[in-house]
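Throughout our pipeline, every protein is held as a single compact record rather than as scattered files. Nothing more is needed to write down the fold, since each code stands for a local backbone conformation. For reference, a complete record is included directly beneath this paragraph.
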Amino acid sequence: MGIRSFPDKISRLAPSTLRKDRTVVFLSAEARLIRHGISSDLVTVPTAAERGGDFSAGAAFTGTLQDQFPATSLAARPGCAQAAAARGGAAIQAGTAWAAIFPGNRIPPQCFDATAAGLLQQFVPLPNNGANTYQSAPVQRENAFQPTARIDQTVNPSNLPTFYYYFDDSTTQQPFSTFEAGGASLPGFGATYGTRAQMFNLANTSSIGASIVNQARFSYFREGCIWPSTRLHLPSRRTSA
């Protein structure tokens, strides 16, 4: 389909003569809009039960709450100490085993860090491929606009000046940023890449006698790049410690 459409595009962009036998103008423009899905890796995410604090399907908690500062911070979270005690948990203090504070590998939601819980809800989706894996195919967007123009002027049979202009503006929005290991394997951490290029070319072809042809040419090229940028907006949250 794409190949068969080329002759139609070319016929609509045929050169136009402004002055017979003197000035000929060539104009062309190409716009490219590409949308296609990019498959993510198979990502391990918390199960629905783990998002609620139930880790009973895994191995028993090990280790001990070593320092009093995190113990005080944890106990100060609204409702945490009471919820842990209601489930048969030991007092939240230094020297206590984690398995004793949270028996049965169940952590009350009241003991979650508010910021961590907010990030989990906003950026980490529920599993959609098995109990604890996630895979998606978000859309990658590619946009490009490329106009060109050329003017051929015949001053006399021995003097033919030409002007050519090229412009290219393109951007690619990747759903998963890969620049310098940035981004993530989950949606929402993409990047935008872009380039803009322009070229001016002024030339003059002249004949000197019957055997010498001279061409003078001046070209100017400039290019700009949009470095990979990720826009991530985090909501403000109040936390208690």
User: Anything to note?
Assistant: Confidence is low (pLDDT under 50) at residues 1-14, 231-241. Residues 2-40+139-229 form one domain. The two ends are 63 Å apart (CA to CA).
